[in-house]
């Protein structure tokens, strides 16, 4: 399948998916990487892997509607069959989300439905949680509220700070996101109503 990845920053999850494709874990091809910032390091990762890139800057558009229309055009120019949000720090309009419904994945650094939004690691520590993690989910109009496909848990130890927890969570992100992309590309993943499920076994 043709995969388009949307990023805003470092792109370590993008890298995990690039590597997943290269290893044959993911039966798909990243046809384009789109960033909303020219400075996103993930663009360098894409170029190093020979993947086409495009910057669609939110600063060039008057409102979210116009921005999302431009984003949609860019995504469609890469013939996307799957859109992967990997640290893409923009809220998407309902029209955009509906247009790509069932083909839009996101990774969020918490055990959803806990800690939607930002600063998840710090919030989990502040709440005294002893575990934390990450979730891959289908994107719906509800921010960080779409059906969860796969989660990974990590412990929070006494003395941890947001950065040690973030690092632990990131390692898991790099394992679970390529796996979910694999399932999608194998046509084994479905979103129906507000549920997600997998056909077949884990690998
Ligand atoms: C990840 O923590 C992801 O959960 C969140 O944004 C971060 C992106 O990291 N949505 P990277 O750019 O993939 O390194």
UniProtKB/TrEMBL annotation:
Keyword Transferase: yes
Pfam families per UniProt: Formyl_trans_N
Domain Formyl transferase N-terminal residues, every copy: 2-181
Gene name of the record: purN
Catalytic activity: N(1)-(5-phospho-beta-D-ribosyl)glycinamide + (6R)-10-formyltetrahydrofolate = N(2)-formyl-N(1)-(5-phospho-beta-D-ribosyl)glycinamide + (6S)-5,6,7,8-tetrahydrofolate + H(+)
Family recorded in the similarity comment: Belongs to the GART family.
Keyword terms: Purine biosynthesis, Transferase
UniProt: N(1)-(5-phospho-beta-D-ribosyl)glycinamide binding residues: 11-13
UniProt site (Raises pKa of active site His): 144
First-tier enzyme category under EC: transferase
Protein name: Phosphoribosylglycinamide formyltransferase
Cross-referenced InterPro entries: Formyl_transf_N, Formyl_transf_N_sf, GART, GART_AS
Active site residues per record: 108
EC number of this enzyme: 2.1.2.2
Source domain of life: Bacteria
Function: Catalyzes the transfer of a formyl group from 10-formyltetrahydrofolate to 5-phospho-ribosyl-glycinamide (GAR), producing 5-phospho-ribosyl-N-formylglycinamide (FGAR) and tetrahydrofolate.
Biological pathway: Purine metabolism; IMP biosynthesis via de novo pathway; N(2)-formyl-N(1)-(5-phospho-D-ribosyl)glycinamide from N(1)-(5-phospho-D-ribosyl)glycinamide (10-formyl THF route): step 1/1
Binding sites annotated in the UniProt record for (6R)-10-formyltetrahydrofolate: 64, 89-92, 106
